[in-house]
Design brief:
This protein is mainly α. Helix content is about 45%, strand content about 10%. It has a two-stranded antiparallel ribbon with strand order 1-2. The chain has a two-stranded antiparallel sheet with strand order 3-4. The longest helix is centred in the last third of the chain and has 33 residues. It starts with a helix and ends with a helix.
Length: about 220
């Protein structure tokens, strides 16, 4: 019985697991990746009819080489089956996004840097001797006081005795809040401008302060 046709059909359907390359592939089995540095077949790649077939063959061969490397790894058996132990990673992938730019300094940070001021972190909870418990310094329930603590406000001298001191205090607080909001917006605008230009310029007030101090020091020396 002649089985030549059957064997040929079998070979055509199932290709061998051995693949020869002019330049061996570089593998990083940890991420299941192979790097093929061989040159493309320009003629087959330029032919629209043969391009798809050529790419499928190239993909199949490289995948087979990667699978061959996986089968070389040490294996262990457990309840789920046979598991291969992957080696350590050898390749580094590039970043998806560029490195973040340095955040521009705010006015206070510039001032603190010039003066050498270091921030000291204050604990949020502080012990209240009168209440005999820890209370929040800020945030939710921050600075909580009894309602009877400010039941009486002293009227300052030369002030209108008919003026509502509670309303005045609330108005002053609103003004401080608005002033802080304007300062924050100004800092954001300056930070945005420095990010666009790429040049963070120091605050002009610091330079003027330095200049005034130097000039005053010179005057004192002359005296």
């Amino acid at each position: 019985m002649d089985v030549t046709e059957i064997l040929d059909a079998h070979k055509a359907q199932f290709k061998p697991i051995t693949v020869e390359k002019l330049v061996p592939l570089d593998f990083d089995v940890n991420v299941l990746t192979g790097f093929d540095t061989n040159a493309f077949d320009e003629k087959r790649l330029a032919n629209k009819k043969k391009r798809e077939e050529y790419l499928k063959e190239l993909t199949r061969d490289n995948t087979q080489l990667l699978i061959n490397e996986i089968f070389k790894l040490p294996v262990t058996s457990n309840e789920t089956g046979v598991i291969a132990k992957l080696p350590e990673r050898t390749s580094l992938l590039p970043r998806e996004k560029p490195l973040p730019k340095d955040k521009p300094l705010t006015r206070w940070e510039k001032f603190a840097k010039v003066k050498g001021i270091q921030n000291r972190k204050r604990e949020r909870m502080v012990w209240d001797e009168e209440k005999q418990k820890y209370v929040a310094r800020w945030g939710y329930a921050g600075g909580e006081k009894d309602k009877l603590d400010d039941w009486l406000i002293e009227v300052p001298q030369n002030a209108d005795p008919m003026e509502d001191q509670y309303a005045k205090r609330n108005e002053e607080k609103k003004q401080r809040v608005e002033k802080n909001k304007k300062r924050q917006q100004r800092n954001l605008d300056e930070a945005l401008a420095s990010m666009v230009t790429g040049k963070g310029k120091p605050d002009a007030s610091f330079n003027s302060q330095k200049g005034s101090k130097k000039s005053s020091a010179k005057k004192q020396k002359k005296k």
